[in-house]
Every structure is written in structure tokens, then in C-alpha cells.
Design brief:
Layout: E1 32-33, E2 39-46, E3 52-57, E4 63-70, E5 79-84, E6 89-93, E7 100-106, E8 112-117, E9 125-133
Parallel strand pairs: 1-3
Antiparallel strand pairs: 2-9, 3-8, 4-7, 4-9, 5-6, 5-8
């Protein structure tokens, strides 16, 4: 109505960001174990301020491991860090632009840890993709499905599943 108001309250009730399928993977010790080789995980989230996402990868062969985090920084910035099993930082990407990338030479059978974090812990990010390139055999879309407990849910009905792999000796697919 055009009148002045010297004291008012504004409440913004924004969308809730839910945890992704890998939760709870908020610490080094609770890192989600991923398979070896090339893989892409889409639709991941940093669902709360001061939430980190940790992933463990153990390459089947020695070579170069490249990790990318793809996201829109207008929605929330992210940083990417890569550690060895002793929690020593091997590489990081800390830009304030879209996407982050790290690349490290790795040794077969050793554990490496990927950390995705919002700078200063202040942001959420409702949608990012984690892209891992090598080294090692390419995984099928259902990995890690190597036990009854981690069996892939194929849903119901007639299906044809292509491009599946038994990527290591002794590997089972469930």
C-alpha cells in the first residue's frame, strides 16, 4: 500500500536437498567403496552444510587415475580432493568455477579416497556427477554388485541388459 514498515520478518523456505544413494559417506572411515575402472555416478548431492562426500577406489592396475566432479556453481560451489590410504593429500582442485578435476598416478591394489566438499562447508549442492577414468577395466553400470548384500536391483519385467562385465578374476555379479 506504499506505507513504510521499519520492522518485518522474511522467511524463505527453500527446497530440501536429500542425501544421495551413497549416504552415509561423510568421513574418511565411512567412504563409499566404488569398483575399479571407468565409472560415472550421476545425481549425487551435498545435502547439508558442512557435509562431505567420501569415496574409496582401489585400482586393479597401476596407471593414471582421473577424477572429475561436474556441477553448476550457480547452485553451489564444490571442491575436489584426492587422498591416499594414509590420508595424505595427493591432489586437489579448488576453483570457484563449474567442475573440478584431479589426476594422479596410482598403484594397483592400493586404496585411494575421493573427497567432494563445499568450500568453507557453507553450501549445499543438489546435483553433481562424479566421473572416474581408469586405470583398469571398465565396469558395467551395476557395479559394485559383487555380493548378495550389494546386489543390483533390476526391477521387474522382461529386460535385456547389455555391456555387462566380469572385470576381475574372482568377481561375481549379483
Amino acid at each position: 500500500n506504499g506505507s513504510l514498515q521499519s520492522d518485518y520478518t522474511l522467511v524463505v523456505d527453500g527446497p530440501v536437498v536429500s542425501g544421495d544413494r551413497f549416504e552415509i559417506n561423510d568421513t574418511f572411515s565411512t567412504a563409499s567403496v566404488l569398483g575399479a575402472g571407468d565409472q560415472t555416478h550421476q545425481g549425487l548431492t551435498i545435502h547439508a552444510p558442512y557435509n562431505n562426500d567420501w569415496f574409496q577406489i582401489s585400482p586393479a592396475v597401476s596407471g593414471t587415475l582421473e577424477v572429475d566432479v561436474l556441477f553448476d556453481t550457480r547452485v553451489g560451489d564444490l571442491d575436489l580432493e584426492l587422498y591416499d590410504a594414509s590420508q595424505q593429500l595427493l591432489d586437489n582442485s579448488l576453483t570457484s568455477t563449474d567442475n573440478e578435476h584431479v589426476s594422479v598416478d596410482v598403484v594397483a591394489g592400493q586404496d585411494y579416497y575421493i573427497k567432494v566438499v563445499a568450500p568453507l562447508g557453507a553450501y549445499t549442492q543438489p546435483d553433481y556427477d562424479l566421473v572416474i577414468n581408469g586405470p583398469g577395466p571398465n565396469l558395467d553400470p551395476y557395479e559394485v554388485n559383487d555380493s548378495f548384500a550389494t546386489a543390483a536391483d533390476l526391477g521387474t519385467g522382461d529386460q535385456l541388459q547389455e555391456n555387462l562385465s566380469i572385470h576381475l578374476g574372482g568377481n561375481d555379479d549379483w
